[in-house]
Amino acid sequence: MKVETNYNEEQLEEGQYKTSIMNYIKDEDNKQDNQSHDDNQIKKEKEDDDKKFIYTPEEKKLLRKINMATIPFIFAIVFLQYLDKVALNFSAVLGLFQDTGINGSEFSWLGSIFYLGYLLFQIPNQYCLQWFPMSKYLGTCLVLWGIVLGCTPLAQTFPQLLALRFLQGFFEASAYPCIQLLISIIYRRKEQVILYGILMCSNNLGIALGGLIGFGFLSLNGLYGLSSWKWCMIILGSTTVGVGVITFFFLPDKTNSRWYRLTPEEHEIVEDRMKDNKVVQNKVIKLNHIWEALKEIRFYCYMIICFLLHLVNGCTSIFSTTIIKNMGFSTMQSILLNIPSGFMAMFLVLLAVFLSRRFNENNYVGAFMCIITFVAMLLLTVLPISGAMLSGILLATTNPGSAIILSVIGNNVSGYTKKVFYNGAYLVAYCLGNFTGPLMMIENEAPRYTSGMIGYMIAAIVSGLLFLFARWTYVRDNRYRQQLKNEDGLPSFTTDENQPIDLTDREDLRFIYRP
């Protein structure tokens, strides 16, 4: 009897334990179901918003006017910025080494010092972006870096080349932040990923057409006693000065620019577009916006991704022609074989844009593009030194990943000072990556550069993982905001004139992130 009683007590305890476990599992299932429901609800609302939004004929007409007045500037400035920067790449096989007496290590430093100048200009750039009209500021910088590039043929020694490359990077540092901010101000959030794709395609077209342009400069060798690389610098520098003058006078740098020739009805549409992109222009530098950015884990995720991806970019933008020549190709062939890599990079950028728009996902697409970069570095490491390595060169682009980061910043960072700060920090990481990348190409490891390639592969893997982690943080924050919305706990922010306030994405709890 006693034994039976003990057994029943044990059985009861076991039953209570099982019940407790079942309740716990049920609670967890309910919790997961609620989270899944919230995630689906958020996704559905975003999809519904996209479906509900239909461009009116008036806005379509306005958008065409905006595109015709803005996109040519975006394309021309980014194209020239990239072409001017990588002119050094083509100069390596156009007589630069022979005329100046530099060696391979010094050439690596010429690639890196550009980004030191780029980096040092980012702090004053933050203030200039908010204090000066963008057209005047950017136009002036274009003229200055064009002059520096045009004066580069006067250099006869390594220190002189080093100083000029530093100054070129210093003045070119204005281009990307201005263009990024311009896109964020003028275009709706759903339109921005396309514009960032155009931005990166402009870069890649610089690679593709740069090959043809470099081939054309070969025919100028010896003209008026100047080597091909000198003509390259002079002509590109002069073109940049001309574009700078046009930019100074004609770039539309605000939503109601006179160059858009807005009608009264279009002014109202522009106000609605401003509310959509959550950017309220002002000249007040808000330190709380900067402090908020510095406290966000996502900020560091994207800055690390940018740094790691541009380690690879620092290699491919400066050393691609040299690597191709080491495969056994002639000087002419080495230049021309950059053309297909440029078009392949354009294809990958367009693929990233398509996937991002099709699935309304940014970070998954970014992680996928990191896998492609990893495969490219792997091919350059394991394939025999021959034309087969061109497959690695074709895939060795980080522009799709960069386009995704820019799209994320444009879509998910609100608050004018905060957005300017994010863009500036992106450029700092961009500079550090491009500065460090060429230095990982150790001269005595040519033509394989094994240590550098292994480092680039590790960078691609870590970048992909960080993209996935950043996405998880967006999903978590969206769930919290959806919960507040379900409980009617969301505050509203309006001024007396019912105009939008310059709020950050963390201050405005109605702001829904696009992961």
Summary, kept brief:
By secondary structure, this protein is mostly helical.
Radius of gyration over all CA atoms, rounded: 26 Å
- What is the total domain count? 1
Dominant shape: globular
Order of helices and strands: HHHHHHHHHHHHHHHHHHHHH
> Kindly state the mean pLDDT as a whole number?
82
Low-confidence segments, ≥5 residues, pLDDT <50?
Answer: 1-15, 17-21
The number of helical runs is 21
> What name does the CATH topology carry?
Growth Hormone, Chain: A
CATH class: Mainly Alpha
In terms of DSSP E residues, the strand content is: under 5%
Distance between the termini: 64 Å
CATH architecture call: Up-down Bundle
Instruction: State the share of residues found in helices, binned by percent.
Output: over 70%
What does this entry look like structurally?
The protein has 515 residues and is mainly alpha-helical. It has one domain: Growth Hormone, Chain: A. The longest helix has 51 residues. The chain starts with a helix and ends in a 29-residue tail after the last helix. The N terminus is likely disordered.
Detail the topology: elements first, then pairings.
Elements: H1 2-52, H2 57-85, H3 87-91, H4 96-100, H5 104-120, H6 122-131, H7 134-151, H8 158-172, H9 175-186, H10 189-218, H11 228-250, H12 264-277, H13 287-294, H14 297-326, H15 331-336, H16 338-359, H17 363-382, H18 390-395, H19 399-412, H20 416-439, H21 450-486
Helix pairs in contact: 1-21, 2-9, 2-10, 2-11, 5-8, 5-20, 6-20, 7-8, 7-11, 9-20, 10-11, 10-16, 10-19, 13-20, 14-19, 14-20, 14-21, 16-19, 17-19, 17-21
Protein name: Major facilitator superfamily (MFS) profile domain-containing protein
GO cellular component, one term: membrane
Main location: membrane
